Amino acid sequence: MAEYINIRGQSIEVVASDPANPTLGQIWYNSTSNTLKGLGLSTAAWATGGTLPSTKAEFASAGVQTAAFAAGGEVAPTFNTVSTTELYDGTSWSPTGSMGQARRQSSGAGTTAAGLAIGGRFTVDLTSTEEFNGSTWTGGGSLPVAKQAMGAAGTQTSALSFGGSNIPAGNLNTTEEYDGNSWTGGNPLITAVSGIAGAGTQTAAIGVGAPATPTTQEYDGISWTTGGNLNTTRNELGATGTQTATLAFGGGSPVSNATELYDGTSWTTSPATMATARSKVGRAGTQTLALAFGGATPGYSNATEEWTGAAPTTVTITAS
Fold it and tell me: pTM of the full predicted structure?
C-alpha cells in the first residue's frame, strides 16, 4: 500500500497540540489526543431566529446579525403603513421608539446605534430622512427627489441612496450621497431600476437585482460600472456585506429562496437556501453572518433566519 509521504512528497507534522494558525487544507497528527486533524470549511446554512413581533414587509432595515432594526413598513393583516420599530439582539425582537413618519418602501443604512430610514411612501412618495440613535428617531436631511424602493448603503454620516421610483416619473437612476446633514446628487446609475438592493459603503457600494435582468451595478464614489450577473434574476431581494464580499438572498418575481455570494467579480449560488422564500425582505450583517427577516411570500412573513457562511474549522479525520 502506498504511504502518504510517497503520495504527497512530505510527511504529516506530529504535534502535541493543534497549531494556533493553520492554513486551509493543512493536516497534522495530534499526539496528545492520538487523532489526525486538518483545517477544512464548515457548511454554510440558514437557521431559524427569533420571530418578528409584526408580520410585515417593505420596511427599512440595517445592522448586523446580533443587532439589527426593522423600521416602518406595511403590516398584515390590515396592510396599514406603520412607523413602529423593532430591534434584534441576536435572539429575539423587541419594540423601541417609532419613527416620526409612517412609511413603507423606505431603505435603511447604518447600525442600531446610528441608523437611517430613507425616503419611502405614505400616500405620496417621500423625500424625508430619519436618523436613529438606538431608541429614538429624529429628522435628517431631505432627498433631492422623492422616491421609494431604492437601494441604500453606508453609515448614518456617509450614506448612499440610488435608484428607486416615484409617481409619476416611474423608475429612477438618481444617486444621492449623505454626509450626516444633507443629501447631494451623484452620478446616475447605468440603468434606472426600482427594487434594487444595496450593500457596501458610500465609496464602494453595490446595487443588486432588477426586474427581468440579473445585472449588478458597482459604485466607486464617483461613477457606476457593471459587475457580474446574478445567477437567478430577481428584484426586491436582500443584500448584505461589502462590494467584494456580498450576500444576496430571496427576492422576486417569482418569490425566491436562493442565496448567492459575490467576490467582486462573479456570483456563486450556494446550495443553502432560506426556509421561507420571500421578497421585500429585511437584511442585516455580512457575507458570513447575516440576517433575513419579514418580507412577502407573497403573504407577509414574520420569520427571521440567520445565515452562517462557510468558514475555516478544525476537523478530526477518521476512516469512512
Answer: 0.88
